[in-house]
């Protein structure tokens, strides 16, 4: 289990992370969502040891993380980080050898991932010759080529078409099934909702919600129900303790407590057949909007995303 507790980080007089804490369980896919400048990338860099926290801890299975432990991590940055003129297969094998694989095993690891990610036909192309979507797949392969024990991925689905997203999701799910903690950020909330076991929402450098996806949907659900009847639902407007949100003949969306909702159902059944009835739970996108709706971007709100202190700069791409 990867765990963060009480993590703070400032850039100058701007507090970027404020008491950030959450867990990434082994064998589970955890989505990390937040607006631009919310603190996602800074949090990931602290986990990876690229950036130091002002205070707080990052542990793996209860032990503090050091350089040796982080060598077992796989990381995909949001920015392109591969050598553009190097052939894809050659690059992946090279990265595997940096992690201790011999030449044959490194080549086998590269070939396996190229096949799994649909890049086998482009194995001998230079990275710069690939489409943006295929470059993204190659970047994901680079994060996986040394068979990491923990995966940290920053916007892994950016630039991928729906079929490519499904391919990548399958590969990540395989890793999670082996017990690998997988943390990834994404602005594609529909993908996060479909893929993730757990969700962490960050806004203005603070964790606003964290937990299993379905638990969060229950937590943020309003006492709202919908009903579809063969008869006209106009009578619902006069029902006590019911607030009608939407109405269209035999369909109604309404707010009420559980007991009142059951009373509405019984009354509807007395009038006509009911084909559908149940509580309405919010989507992840609706939860996210509810959490961050009062967040007002400032001129400095991209310090997390745009500010690149010298110690954060990656090796230039050649």
Structure commentary:
This protein is of the alpha/beta class and 318 residues long. The protein folds into 2 domains: 2-72 and 149-218 and 285-312, 3-Layer(aba) Sandwich (Rossmann fold), CATH 3.40.50.300; 223-279, Alpha-Beta Plaits. Helix content is 34%, strand content 26%. The radius of gyration is 24 Å and the shape is elongated. It starts with a strand and ends in a 12-residue tail after the last helix. Residues 296-318 have low confidence and may be disordered.
What's the helical proportion of residues? 25-40%
Roughly how many Å apart are the termini? 36 Å
Superfamily (CATH H level) name of the largest domain? P-loop containing nucleotide triphosphate hydrolases
User: What proportion strand?
Assistant: 25-35%
C-alpha Rg (nearest Å): 24 Å
Overall pLDDT level: 88
Assign the CATH class of the largest domain. Answer: Alpha Beta
């Amino acid at each position: 289990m990867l765990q963060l507790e009480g993590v703070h980080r400032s850039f100058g007089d701007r507090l970027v992370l404020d008491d950030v804490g959450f867990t990434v369980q082994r064998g589970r896919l955890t989505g990390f969502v937040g607006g631009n400048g919310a603190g996602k990338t800074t949090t990931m860099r602290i986990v990876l040891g690229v950036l130091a926290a002002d205070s707080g801890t990052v542990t793996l299975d209860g032990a503090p993380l050091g350089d040796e432990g982080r060598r077992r991590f796989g990381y995909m940055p949001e920015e392109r980080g591969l050598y553009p003129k190097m052939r894809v297969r050659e690059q992946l094998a090279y990265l595997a050898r940096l992690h201790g694989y011999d030449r044959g095993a490194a080549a086998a690891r590269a070939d396996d991932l190229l096949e799994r990610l649909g890049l086998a036909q482009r194995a001998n192309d230079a990275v710069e010759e690939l489409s943006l979507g295929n470059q993204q797949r190659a970047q994901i392969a680079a994060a996986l080529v040394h068979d990491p024990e923990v995966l940290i991925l920053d916007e892994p689905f950016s630039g991928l078409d729906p079929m490519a997203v499904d391919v990548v999701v399958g590969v990540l799910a395989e890793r999670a099934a082996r017990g690998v903690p997988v943390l990834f950020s994404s602005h594609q909330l529909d993908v996060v909702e479909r893929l993730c076991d757990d969700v962490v929402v960050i806004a203005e450098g603070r964790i606003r919600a964290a937990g299993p996806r379905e638990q969060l949907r229950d937590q943020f659900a309003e006492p709202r129900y919908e009903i579809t009847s063969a008869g006209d639902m106009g009578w619902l407007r006069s029902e006590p303790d019911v607030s009608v949100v939407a109405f269209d003949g035999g369909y109604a969306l309404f707010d009420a407590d559980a007991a009142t909702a059951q009373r509405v159902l019984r009354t509807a059944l007395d009038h006509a057949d009911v084909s559908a009835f149940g509580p309405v739970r919010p989507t992840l996108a609706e939860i996210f909007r509810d959490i961050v709706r009062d967040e007002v971007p400032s001129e400095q709100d991209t310090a997390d995303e745009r500010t690149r202190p010298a110690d954060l700069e990656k090796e230039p791409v050649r």
